[in-house]
């Protein structure tokens, strides 16, 4: 079963409070999401593997560690996931960025993929799928299906706010994908919004309505 990690670092919780506040405008919302994404990237990369190399400091020889594991791919789910990309790239600047776009079929309400563009070396990368909100879990599940169909094997999912319904659906569909969140909220409302959540993440990031 996939593990769920809630990042309750005080800086993340502090910034999340202002992200949630409806008085926070687009500029501040965008900046805060970017900052929280950087902080979450710091936590989510804790298990990256290291190897020893020998270097020479101005004083002498030493063995020191550098990253040795697979390279990273970041996959924002369009469109709100884009708001978290730059924050992650600040810590992992060499990561490649793929995109997955989904729309909801009005009849079946199922997410359908309309755009997928991934790095060419899918099998060789560890992927972090990002979306600020994990609500029903439908988009996250479908985005991860899209990646797996194309050969991805190591995938993590990261979001700001999750509903218990979405966490359970994602765990059931993808038991191999660990979930990293800044806050686990109460529930979904009848319109599929997370309560208390932060509203529509895409609209708040891009200033649309
Ligand atoms: N997507 C959002 O942007 N907000 C929610 O509360 C749920 C899904």
Automatic annotation (TrEMBL):
GO terms for cellular component: cytoplasm. HAMAP family: Upp_B (MF_01218_B). Its EC number is 2.4.2.9. Allosterically activated by GTP. The keyword Transport does not apply. It comes from the Bacteria. GO terms for molecular function: GTP binding; magnesium ion binding; uracil phosphoribosyltransferase activity. Binds 1 Mg(2+) ion per subunit. The magnesium is bound as Mg-PRPP. It comes from Cytobacillus depressus. Keywords: Allosteric enzyme, Glycosyltransferase, GTP-binding, Magnesium, Nucleotide-binding, Transferase. GO terms for biological process: UMP salvage; uracil salvage. It catalyses: UMP + diphosphate = 5-phospho-alpha-D-ribose 1-diphosphate + uracil. 5-phospho-alpha-D-ribose 1-diphosphate binds at residues 79, 104, 131-139, 200. Residues 6-208 form the Phosphoribosyltransferase domain. Belongs to the UPRTase family. Pathway: Pyrimidine metabolism; UMP biosynthesis via salvage pathway; UMP from uracil: step 1/1. This is Uracil phosphoribosyltransferase.
